[in-house]
From TrEMBL:
<dbReference type="Pfam" id="PF02609">
    <property type="entry name" value="Exonuc_VII_S"/>
</dbReference>
<dbReference type="InterPro" id="IPR037004">
    <property type="entry name" value="Exonuc_VII_ssu_sf"/>
</dbReference>
<protein>
    <recommendedName>
        <fullName>Exodeoxyribonuclease 7 small subunit</fullName>
        <ecNumber>3.1.11.6</ecNumber>
    </recommendedName>
</protein>
<keyword id="KW-0378">Hydrolase</keyword>
<comment type="function">
    <text>Bidirectionally degrades single-stranded DNA into large acid-insoluble oligonucleotides, which are then degraded further into small acid-soluble oligonucleotides.</text>
</comment>
<comment type="similarity">
    <text>Belongs to the XseB family.</text>
</comment>
<keyword id="KW-0963">Cytoplasm</keyword>
<comment type="subunit">
    <text>Heterooligomer composed of large and small subunits.</text>
</comment>
<dbReference type="InterPro" id="IPR003761">
    <property type="entry name" value="Exonuc_VII_S"/>
</dbReference>
<keyword id="KW-0269">Exonuclease</keyword>
<keyword id="KW-0540">Nuclease</keyword>
Length: 84
């Protein structure tokens, strides 16, 4: 699979392809060369999914209830809020 084709996949499509690759690798019925190729393709899909999740995290806004009502706050993972 080409990198350009991978970048056009939705998160769900990439996860579906990744699941199929995992199933094939877990079956143990693939030659070594094919297993290596599948592993490399799986790693690319995994990175694509991770990147898409990071994009979504940046878009999430948390609503925080205060005395003045609800306020929007940009999403920050727990470890970033604590400076870790």
């Amino acid at each position: 699979m080409k990198a350009a084709a991978n970048s056009e996949l939705s998160f769900e499509e990439a996860m579906e392809q990744l699941e199929k690759i995992v199933e094939r690798l877990e079956s143990g019925d693939v030659p070594l060369e094919t297993a290596i190729d599948l592993f490399q393709e799986g790693m690319k899909l995994s990175q694509l999914c991770g990147g898409k999740l990071e994009q979504v995290e940046r878009k999430i806004e948390l609503l925080i209830e205060t005395e003045q009502g609800f306020q929007k706050k940009a999403f920050a993972p727990m470890n970033e809020e604590k400076g870790e």
